[in-house]
Amino acid sequence: LPQRLASLAATAQEETWQSRQQLQAQRQEMARLQEELSRARQDGERWASALQRAQREALEREATRGAEQARQQELIRDMKQRLLELLREKDALWQKTEGIDTPMPSPVPRDPGLCARCHKDFRLLSRRYNCSRLCQGKVCHTCSVDMGKHGRCCLICYQQRHPQAT
């Protein structure tokens, strides 16, 4: 019996030692897991803080963008209003100038050797052209406009026929 008790005691000591070893290993594992948990909590807090900061910055950007958009809309509205004012002013000026007569072509000079507009002498190098429009005067190259196949005409006749060209 004493051998058996000694054997049981030895087995119990061995089991106790193994249990202690397992307990120590489990404690180490638990400490490691607690450390990981602590790091995960810190990471979570950092991520939450970063998320809050990003949300705050996004809200600030959105507010700035909204204010800029409001300024741009106001500028567009002001520009449209100014455009309407300018169009009204243009129409008023157009109506005022509607009754003004355009200058009539000056009479043809009696000397056929002079330009009807600038009174330059016609020579070998300065060609004379007959105005193909209203005045039928003789004009130099400088005082005339090429009308294509219709010939040339003096600047005053051209301006009367084409007022948008002035």
TrEMBL record:
It holds the Pfam family RUFY4. Transmembrane segments: none annotated. Residues 9-95 form the RUFY4-like domain. Residues 1-23 are annotated as: Disordered. It comes from the Eukaryota. This is RUFY4 protein. It comes from Promerops cafer.
